[in-house]
Task: structure prediction
Amino acid sequence: MQLRKLLMVGALFTAVATISSGCAYRTDLAQGNFVEQDAVDQLRQGMSAAQVQYILGTPMLTDPFDNSRWYYVHYLRQGWDDPEIKNLVVVFEGNTLSDIAGDFEKPASFYDGTQNIQKINFGQQ
Result:
């Protein structure tokens, strides 16, 4: 009986030492839209919704009652660190981009409507 008690205490001590030393592994978790500042820098006021979707990808959330706002949300938790959440809200008037907001810096040329966009003609030459 005393040997069994000694083994239980030893197993408990080993378990507590293992858990408290940080040996437990936690995988990284990334969810949502990964948006970089380089992609946001390509946005210009007056772009069509299709152009914005081409640059940023499909939005994480569109308001079902007001589809003039697209939400791009990225959640990243690395190991045991606190999660990092980045948001980007894209606002349209009709089918044209009017404003952006969120955790990304608005490009200085956002309101410059004279961006050189290469147009590809899929129809006649």
